[in-house]
Amino acid sequence: MKVLITAGPTREHIDDIRFISNPSSGATGIALAEEAVKRGFEVAIVLGPTSLQPIYGVKVIPVVSSAEMTEKTLAELDKGYDMLVSTAALADYTPVEKVDGKIRSGKDITLKLKPTRKLIRDARERNPDLKIVAFKAEYRKREDELIEAGRKLLDTSDLVVVNDVSNDVFGSDETEVYMVGESVKHIKRAKKREVAKEIFDALS
Fold first, then answer.
1. First to last CA, the chain
2. What is the pLDDT of residues 91-132, one digit of tens each?
3. 89 near 46, Cβ under 8 Å?
4. Are 25 and 171 in contact (CB under 8 A)?
5. CA 81 to CA 16: how far, in whole Å?
6. pTM over 0.90
7. Dist. CA 81–CA 62, nearest whole Å
8. In the chain, what are the domains?
9. Hey, CA dihedral for 78, 60, 40, 185, is it positive or negative?
10. What CA–CA distance (Å, rounded) separates 111 from 86?
11. Is residue 99 classed as helix, strand or coil in its secondary structure?
């Protein structure tokens, strides 16, 4: 079994110093990569900027921007994988133009953004038989809203893992998720490595 995982944040640069990002640490994706290795799978991880690194035995493909993560993930999938697990917190928007150097301070600026590509959609279009696990982050949503958000992604994914990031999960070694597929399973707050086991158990 060959498994490709995406993890971590992306950085969308405004200039050479400043960027738009989010607090994702990549810990969930790294926990999944390590669990996959333990199960004897061949594993690669496309990893955004983070101080965390997976265990020995995981091929690491470092990236910075959302565009770079999408491009390198699709290129890696072309090498033949059985499963894509996309935990990365890719930016939904990126600046239309990046300013060279540093924007001078002291005056108002207007920042124009454009939508980024949708990695899962592109991966599905290019790999119709690929098993895809998508992750969906929501903020301050009820249980029924979280589940519905997951169901909306099942047209391009085989399993959707949804969580509410208002529950202090960014940067924590714990998380709470809903696994949405043919059925729904609620995994109460637990160590991310334990959640990783539950996710792969659900896929076996």
1. 11
2. 999 999 999 999 998 889 999 999 999 999 999 999 999 999
3. no
4. yes
5. 35
6. yes
7. 18
8. 2-96+113-203 (3.40.50.10300)
9. negative
10. 29
11. coil
